[in-house]
Amino acid sequence: MKKAIALFGLILLLAGIGIPVFSGIMMERTLNQMFGQINQVYAETGMGFSYEIIDYDRRFFSSEIEWKIKLGTQKAFYGLEEIVFLDRAKHGITRVVSTTSLEKNQWFMDFLEQKVDGKNPLGISSEYRYSGNIIISIALDGFDWEMADAAFVCMPGQIAVTVAKDLKQVDSEVTWEGFSVDDKLVVNQVSMDSKLEKLSTYIWDGNVAFSVQNIQAESKRGRFELSKVSCEYLVDFEKDEKALSINASVGADKITGGPNPIQDAFVQIGINQIDSDGFEAFMEMYSQIMMRVMGEMSAESGKDPEAVKRDTKKRFAALGLQMAGAYEKLLKQGLELQLADIKATFPQGRINGNFALGLKKDMTMVQFVPLAIQPSLSLDFFSLKSDFSLPIELVGERPKLLQPVFPGMRTGLFEISGDALIHHAETRNGKLFLNGHAVRLP
Q1: Three-state SS for 284?
Q2: Which residues make beta-bridge pairs with 355?
Q3: How many domains does the chain have?
Q4: Considering the domain boundaries, does residue 136 fall inside one?
Q5: Looking at residues 119-126, what average pLDDT do you find?
Q6: Neighbours of 310 (CB within 10 A)
Q7: Which residue(s) pair with 388 in the sheet?
Q8: Do residues 194 and 209 lie in contact, with contact meaning Cβ atoms separated by under 8 Å?
Q9: Which residues on adjacent β-strands are paired with residue 193?
Q10: Does a structural domain hold residue 83?
Q11: What is the pLDDT, as a whole number, of residue 298?
Q12: How many helices and strands (H and E) does the chain possess?
């Protein structure tokens, strides 16, 4: 019996030593695998970032890891070449818990010493689990920062991110009490929740929801306020059809500051049935062009600011022409631009509207040229449906809205119906109808 107890105790002792050692090995493998995958994504997108482990000191029950993010071509935008992190990890029986510090960055230590009385408001910790998931927690304490011309007050916040080891699933949750700048800008109660699944380098399926309880701004023009702002971003990928739909909705309970207060404002913006192959080709081309432009701008760091400004304008002016080929990859049959459930309530009444523009066949950028000369040709390529209603009192006397714009129209863009202006347009059977009447396009 005593031998059995002793043997059992020896097994527990070995497990107590061996499991933490195994946990440390598991964490090192997970980090190396994850950094490799992250660097692969950055290489494919041309973003210029890279992750690198500087030193990995793994012991029996703990590890100390120094690693960095190299900003590459984007260093000019951030004013830094790299950000260095120091992780101190404790190997447990069921998990590894690591705390992360920015103490190796002199710019960060100077900021703490000079701006926030030496107190570090940022706490970062990570859990590495045997399931492969990594849970990252970031806690932000409140702090005051006396800037050169304003006082910045940051309130507490929390970020929780769960990342799968293969980077194919990322869930995050953010809560932040907000911030203020000299009481001229006050933002209260910010939250965000997201669930995203990686399908390819450029395609992620899932949703992101964002909300702000209140935004107040003071300027020479007066006071502006937004209440209960909400935004939602949804991506849906239909694998069988190889089609991607991206929808974003924006709403606010109340908007004040203009000539008319607005209540219950909302709009849903959608780009539907995007050809997924075309989207990935577009994103790849866009990323390459943008990274090249950023690299050129980074190379001009330290030059005369006015000269840099002029060069930047030239680059972005040329960017539109370079992107023409990228835009063309999206012009595939079935593509639809949609503005749905547009609504807002003014003292004079309520606005409602919907708009949808669809592409009936594949198109090239060159084909837009004859459409500008002969608009009737657009009926071969596009479908349209739109409905709007707005109170007459809101727009006042607007005869141009009620009068035909060109001879082929029998009505204006709107007609009067009671105390509202009404608009309805649609294409059907190869013709455009406006407010119930066929329009003869030139």
Answers
A1: helix
A2: 339, 386
A3: 1
A4: yes
A5: 94
A6: 11
A7: 353, 423
A8: yes
A9: 173, 209
A10: yes
A11: 63
A12: 9, 22
